[in-house]
Fold:
Amino acid sequence: MINFDFYTPTRVLFGADRENEAGKQVAAFDGHKVMIIYGKKGGHVESSGLLERVHRSLNGAGLSYIDFSGVVPNPRLSLVKEGIRIGRSEGVDFLLPIGGGSVIDTAKGIGYGIANDFEIEDLLYGRVKTDKNLPIGVILTIAAAGSEMSSSMVLTIEDGMMKRSYGHDCSRPRFAIMNPELTYSLPAYQTASGAADIMMHTMERYFTPTDTDTSLTDRIAEGLMISVRDAAQVAVKDPENYDARATLMWAGSLSHNGLTGAGRVSDFATHKIEHELGGMFDVAHGAGLAAVWGSWARYVYKTNPGRFAQFGEKVFGIDASQTSDSDITDTVLASITAWETWCHSIDMPTTLTELGIYPTDAQIEEMAEKCVFGRNGHIGFFQPLTKEDIVAILQMAK
Structure:
């Protein structure tokens, strides 16, 4: 293993009805004026009674609060700026997002803006850095992004529709409330997209250029991927299966809190490519990842074919026992196909056409250019990718 830091300060409250403890938790972290952040006004958070339960919990702890709604998938910088303005004027000192990655990332952006004296886009473009954010607590309703335990934030800048990220440990939530029952109402497509995202957060760390022994981290990652593989197939067909929902919810957090990448370099090239798909076409993040990964894999596998063979053998049961160096390509391609077969089993796309988008050559060029913009001309670490490489992968993915 290479040297690493592992920091997971988030207190997890897992299980049924734990959302009723939100007020107690905010108070324990010295919050007084809370901004509750969620999605569509009048949407499920309100209609299900969840928001009312959270209000009751905060009232019971003697806390004041304001509601801030309107978050959409691929969250927008403009809404973050509005939240910063309102939060400052209202004296907000604690943020409580209810939802998934988009809502949590919006909260992180608002927290950065309130705690610092700079324009939030300067943070996203890398012009400034900070180690200050407001304290955040999370009530999770979607198993997917892992933002409830991670240090990362991704926002869409409407000027040019570019997705950009910033990460610092100061943005890791103080607590995360995870009630699997809150995910029962998710549509099958959203459940499956979340599962693909969880898998990809692990795979981006699994496909590593690190050549020292990371077998312990491998076993952790492989066990997580096998659990998600199976639980997703159950949850899309039986949405109120508590065990499957619980597995996905906990796996989503573990996949993105640094555990499955400990001791090695991560890649995240597929994520960077998908971010531009999401920015241009507003697709579901997990579905976009599923649509791109197979093409990325076929483009780069010769860098380390043994890694792909191991992935197929350990996660999808591909028989590699008789594989020699001369025919490992067959095992590699079977491993990639096994991933795509799993995607299809939960109705996830494996091409851009299946995703429902048909980018032109000019659009592909634009996305590739945005991918490498401000990143020294390349992305990824398993095999560093230039603009020309990204164009080739996106053309393959069509």
About this structure: The chain has two domains: 11-182, 188-397. The radius of gyration is 21 Å. The mean pLDDT is 95. The first strand starts at residue 11 and ends at 14.
